[in-house]
Design a protein that fits this description.
This protein has 186 residues and is of the alpha+beta class. It has 2 domains: 51 residues; 114 residues, no CATH class. The chain has 5 helices and 5 strands, in the order E-E-E-E-E-H-H-H-H-H. The strands form 2 sheets. The chain has a 3-stranded antiparallel beta sheet with strand order 1-2-5, with helices on one face. It has a two-stranded antiparallel sheet with strand order 3-4. It is flat, with a radius of gyration of 26 Å.
Length: 186
């Protein structure tokens, strides 16, 4: 890493002192024995020229985690994709979805931060993944919900179908169970 303090940049403002941190890229190889390749270096600009390097880099890493959470919330949870009409629901739905996402991450701490046998097996191209992704957590949640549904009800047989009462189309439908609501929310 290189640090340049008390740097001025015209676009930031002529009287604003900046700190520039250049992070050297790590080398990588496409396959064993190939030549060493590098990505582009990272440039971090900070408006506090007296901030120590460790705090600055830690803030950058934390910011990256926040960006990954935003991507997961938008891509997999569906934040900002709600189809509601009520003005109150428009404001409350994203808050509810983010709260559900937070509860899912909190519940995942019961399994630790490492992948265990509780999760579905990974595809061959992703065998080196150490921590579970949001898709892994959602699949685990769905698996547990459907396992609970199948445990509560015995497996029907042919004799059970004959004993079923005819379905009344005009009868009031029972409310959705909490497991169904969680599945819909997920």
């Amino acid at each position: 890493m290189k640090v340049v303090r008390n740097l001025y940049w015209r676009k930031a403002g002529p009287d604003l002192r900046l700190q520039l941190v250049v992070v050297k890229p790590l080398g990588y190889r496409l396959r064993k024995g190939s030549k060493l390749l590098y990505r582009q270096p990272a440039f971090l600009l900070c408006t506090d020229p007296e901030l120590d390097l460790q705090t600055l880099v830690q803030a950058y890493v934390d910011r990256w985690e926040i960006e990954c959470h935003h991507r997961d919330e938008k891509s997999f949870i569906g934040v900002a994709q709600g189809q509601v009409w009520n003005p109150q629901a428009v404001a409350r739905l994203p808050q509810f979805q983010v709260a559900i996402y937070s509860l899912l991450l909190l519940a995942s701490m019961a399994y630790g931060f490492q992948r265990t046998a509780a999760y579905l097996p990974l595809p061959l191209w992703r065998r080196k993944s150490i921590r579970p992704s949001i898709l892994d957590l959602l699949n685990l949640l769905r698996d547990q919900i459907f396992a609970r549904l199948t445990q509560d009800q015995p497996t029907p047989s042919i004799d059970d179908f004959a004993a079923l009462a005819p379905v009344d189309a005009n009868a009031a439908k029972p409310p959705l169970a909490s497991e169904t609501l969680c599945t819909i929310a997920a």
